[in-house]
């Protein structure tokens, strides 16, 4: 089993987490939380989404958030950018990295973006190209790589073909998404084996959801293949807000604890991250799925 | 990454789960639940403990439970047996396998058993020897292998030395316990590397708690070393009842889902196991940590 010396963590809680929470945070609370995250040692925070507020009302204050957070030197502040209109707002918000997104499966892409895959790709190309001109780095999220809620299995050839098109756009990173939280370690290695023949491992990140408890196991399988970049959300925020206990993103706190125990550097202070997790749990108004958060609470670590 | 074709699961929920739950189940409820578990395809169920009721009041009805469950042919019904007195009751209860137990760390052994390690070993030898004479198979639990709440790290030499003594007693299986739920995949492989040089992998089981979310990741690391026997508790029952959200045993349901996705045979019907998990969750009166249980509930799988 291959274990890296260090990994990079991309904290997506303020975007992928908050966009799915039932509780609506005030702009000021979002800013406070992102500022807390900035002080944990995280080097990357996806702070919001510039998708039209009609689609993600929870993040309609994207520009206000982007303009008001305290920028810690060395931290990359990213945001989701759906199109050129969104990019204009992201640039106004002085975002460091633009994240574009699409699905590997046709049906999910249509349901999520209201466009076919072939209609989506030129839009992403325009955004990444404009973003690069404005000196932003770019990241592409590819959803439903490990399973689609409508089409089930997504053919590997399709994942490869779309990934090739995305890398042709000169994106800096491709984040492979386990949207429904059903990826398993064997599948992770099969998909990575195919992709790593074609693309550099330094440019591939994995984005797991812990819906069925396999997020950390999948990360171990990915590390074994040489992957060193993982998305996570503080506290395991996200997932379906109407489903108590149903997990959202892989909890950054659980990943950091595991890495610390395994001797893998993350640069993140677990104690500070857990304080940020506890803070957002109170705002979310529900028990978050992070095991380390719940264990820390039960051990009275916060008193 | 090595992946086995099939694994054996030892369901310990009725013992290791229930002994730690705050809610007290009636004897009749325990019997009903064990009977449900017997119908899931599980081939091994640890149904109770013959430890003196003074120490584990929740399982004071051990004999009644053992005498009243329906025995499904092919299923091994095991119980915890602390000493010869306990063995007499276990034999009266027609138990198939006697599980003895001790800790790898001196302090935890004293706190848990009220004896030193060297005082404990002859007692275990007497029980396993008498059990074998009565045609019972035997299993030994070694706790705190991956960390002790009092002594922290437990020296590998000590784990090896105690394991040797236990195997000298001709136990059929040694279950290595991550009592505090802090084992990590690297540590699992280090410990196993040392033990597998000395003992057959078929006789070693791993017993994880999911306190920090690493149970499945640890199992992946153990499978990679050739281990194919794992303990689990239906629903992730167990852990500290006064700590909401703090996880107990690795959830059998999560292990079975992962194995099914990875193409590893378990012989267990996930649907039936989830029904048993939902049933015991209602009796426990708290949200259980199994991710698959919570996801199944949120997807309305039970309606």
Automatic annotation (TrEMBL), chains A, B:
Domain Pyruvate carboxyltransferase, chain residue ranges per copy: 7-274
One GO term under biological process is: ketone body biosynthetic process
* Xref: Pfam families: HMGL-like (PF00682)
* Keyword set, alphabetical order: Lyase, Metal-binding
For this protein, the record's InterPro entries field holds:
Aldolase_TIM (IPR013785), HMGL (IPR043594), PYR_CT (IPR000891)
GO terms (molecular function) for this protein are: hydroxymethylglutaryl-CoA lyase activity; metal ion binding
- Reading the lineage from the top rank, the first entry is Bacteria
Q: Family, per the entry?
A: Belongs to the HMG-CoA lyase family.
PANTHER family the record matches: HYDROXYMETHYLGLUTARYL-COA LYASE
Q: What is this protein called?
A: Hydroxymethylglutaryl-CoA lyase
